[in-house]
């Protein structure tokens, strides 16, 4: 079997066999297949596509390209969640302790932010001492003992994905649905959960801007999970405006903690309850969504959800004082409130622009390995459709640089588009696509 023959076969629109896909992924992982051939193959897949069977075989080959975890001996029914990325999406920080407080074990490996999307690990590292580099054994032991673990992704899990993703990013092949689906699910399958709730964002602040493409990706991922004997729910959710109010690492961590205490923004709280309810449903901890929601709300009200997060921080060696007293979290030197220039209704709030503004303040990174400023970011005070009065606070900027502060002010004033006519609020959820 030769790599060039597989490239030509896919270039000509033919179906690849499982053996051919496995051979190619093994070669990419080992380095026997050079980058230029892997790039040519990725372009062929982008142009010619893959059917569901091919995409499933690709996902499984990538999942088994390195180490895999078996959680079944520790917890026979574990459910993972994943978001395709967005602005103000700190959902993992709230949902995981909330679900675990209801008795469903959750083990998640998260990543860092790149560009305008924030990373869960960056937000957690606003807490001094919090360890995101657990070993495989530490990860499994904590799941067994505590029922909740939230750490960084092991380089040994799905290494083929890391290699292919880096090439896709510089060869114009990121948009291929089979490659996106395989990238998302290979890491999930390798991490060993028995079910997944996938939050597929759509809108101007999402990777998949067009809703029909987000739905198409969701359906493909559901098919892959069905063929891999995993239960899955895909929620197609809005990312035309930031989720919640906070955008920026320590600001988002603070909002996630407040939500666990019942003090979070309405849209973000509802989003977390939706994802968590489906996780309890897949994990067989609740018979229906209504029962799941009641359990979750009860554990917010009785303090169990917050207590689970607090214990998680302690388990992973974080300074719990920063959880108990949120004023200790990193704080920016300059905090300035922007005033609404006119009265009316908020017509639009371009999520990507808000995310990029926050990143430019220092909350994000342009390339892998760049440092982030945990203190900076933006607080959004209005949602699309909401009434705005001239002279009232529109948003708050947290900055450590006066030049960046001024640039952010100008940009955010342009991003907030106010209409004299009433505007319909944006929906939180567009579609639910799940395995049978």
Structural write-up:
The chain has 436 residues and is an alpha/beta fold. The chain has 17 helices and 13 strands. The strands form 4 sheets. A 4-stranded mixed sheet has the order 1-4-5-13, with helices on both faces. A 4-stranded antiparallel sheet has the order 6-9-11-7, sandwiched between helices. A 3-stranded antiparallel sheet has the order 10-8-12. α1 packs parallel to α3 and α4 (52-63) packs across α10 (211-227). The relative contact order is 0.14.
Order of helices and strands: HHHHEHEHHEHHEHEEHHHHHEEHEEEHEE
Q: Examine the coordinates and then state which fold CATH places here, giving the name of the CATH topology of the largest domain.
A: Pyrimidine Nucleoside Phosphorylase, Chain A, domain 2
Percent strand: 15-25%
Task: Name the average pLDDT.
Answer: 93
Largest sheet: 4 strands, mixed
Query: Going by CATH, what is the homologous superfamily of the largest domain?
Result: Nucleoside phosphorylase/phosphoribosyltransferase catalytic domain
- The count of domains is 3
Shape: globular
Q: What's the number of extended β-strand segments?
A: 13
Share in helix: 40-55%
What separation lies between the terminal Cα atoms? Answer: 37 Å
User: Can you identify the CATH class of the largest domain?
Assistant: Alpha Beta
- Gross CATH architecture of the largest domain: 3-Layer(aba) Sandwich
Give the radius of gyration.
22 Å
List the uncertain runs: none
Please give the order of strands in the largest beta sheet: 1-4-5-13
């Amino acid at each position: 079997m030769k790599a060039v023959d597989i490239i030509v076969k896919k270039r000509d629109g033919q179906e690849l066999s499982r053996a051919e896909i496995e051979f190619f992924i093994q070669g990419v992982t080992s380095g026997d297949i050079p980058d230029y051939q892997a790039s040519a193959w990725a372009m062929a897949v982008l142009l010619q596509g893959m059917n569901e069977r091919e995409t499933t075989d690709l996902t499984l080959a990538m999942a088994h390209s390195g180490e895999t975890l078996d959680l079944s001996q520790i917890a026979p029914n574990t459910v993972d969640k994943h978001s395709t990325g967005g602005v103000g999406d700190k959902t993992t920080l709230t949902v995981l302790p909330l679900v675990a407080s209801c008795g469903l074990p959750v083990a998640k490996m998260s990543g860092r932010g790149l560009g305008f999307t924030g990373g869960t690990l960056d937000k957690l590292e606003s807490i001094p001492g919090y360890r995101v580099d657990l070993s495989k054994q530490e990860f499994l032991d904590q799941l067994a003992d505590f029922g909740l673990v939230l750490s960084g992704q092991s380089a040994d899990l799905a290494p083929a994905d890391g290699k292919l993703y880096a090439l896709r990013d510089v060869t114009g092949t990121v948009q291929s649905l089979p490659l996106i689906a395989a990238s998302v699910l290979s890491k999930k399958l390798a991490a060993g959960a028995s079910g997944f709730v996938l939050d597929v964002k759509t809108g101007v602040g999402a990777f998949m801007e067009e809703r029909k493409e987000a739905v198409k990706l969701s359906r493909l991922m559901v098919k892959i999970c069905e063929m891999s004997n995993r239960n899955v729910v895909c929620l197609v959710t809005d990312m035309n405006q930031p989720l919640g109010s906070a955008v920026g690492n320590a600001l988002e961590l603070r909002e996630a903690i407040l939500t666990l205490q019942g003090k979070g923004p309405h849209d973000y709280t509802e989003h977390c309850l939706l994802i968590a309810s489906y996780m309890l449903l897949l994990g067989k901890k609740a018979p229906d969504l209504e029962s799941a929601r009641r359990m979750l709300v009860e554990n917010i009200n009785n303090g169990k959800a917050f207590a689970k997060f607090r214990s998680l921080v302690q388990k992973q060696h974080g300074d719990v004082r920063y959880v108990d007293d949120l004023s200790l979290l990193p704080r920016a030197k300059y905090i300035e409130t922007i005033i609404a220039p006119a009265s009316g209704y908020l017509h639009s709030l371009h999520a990507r622009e808000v995310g990029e503004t926050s990143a430019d303040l220092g909350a994000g990174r342009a390339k892998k390995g760049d440092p982030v400023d945990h203190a900076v970011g933006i607080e959004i005070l209005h949602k699309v459709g909401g009434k705005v009065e001239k002279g009232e606070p529109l948003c708050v900027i947290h900055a450590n640089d006066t030049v960046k502060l001024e640039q952010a002010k100008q940009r955010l004033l342009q991003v907030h588009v106010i209409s004299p006519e009433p505007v319909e609020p944006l929906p939180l959820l567009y579609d639910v696509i799940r395995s049978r």
